Amino acid sequence: MHTQPKDFKDWYSNQGEALLSVLKHRFDEHMFRHQGHSWPTIQKRLEDQPEKLWSLQQMEDTGGEPDMVGLDSETGEILFFDCSPESPKGRRSVCYDREGLESRKSYPPENSAQDMAQAMGVSLLTEAQYRYLQQFGPLDAKTSSWLDTQQSVRKLGGALFGDYRYGRVFIYHNGAQSYYSARGFRAALLV
């Protein structure tokens, strides 16, 4: 469960409007990501679910530059993804999950991608979502991002990550306990 502040109503009244302004500006600046959608509809949905604004603020504060990128095909919910050119700076140098973190014999990182995502109230992008996001890119040309990994791969000790090199998107694998200064994670939020 994510950790919203106890004084959420105060946070919302003090920072909610400022965040909506940032999101609207980004929406207007990057219409190619959401053609056919209008800001008033998105703003209404956010105002009806203010707890989602808190999660978007966490994405923003860690360098994700969240933006609306479409609708979920199954639920019709609005999709917000991190659209920063590189993996968000405030979420790098993390291993994949708690199990990977605890398996480190030496020099463990401070956190894991899955733990951070849960605390923020978001999820890691799936491989399909990452490939979809890259159509607006290229993104992660100098960094890489952990991706939500199927249990069958995770049971074998691995985890997936993606990046953009040589004019194309690559999806790779690594041990879930590994971490690098240029690898973080991109978040998805349904509203």
TrEMBL record:
Please give the superkingdom of this protein's source.
Answer: Bacteria
Name a Pfam family for this protein.
Answer: DUF4256
Official protein name in the record: DUF4256 domain-containing protein
In terms of InterPro entries, this protein maps to:
DUF4256
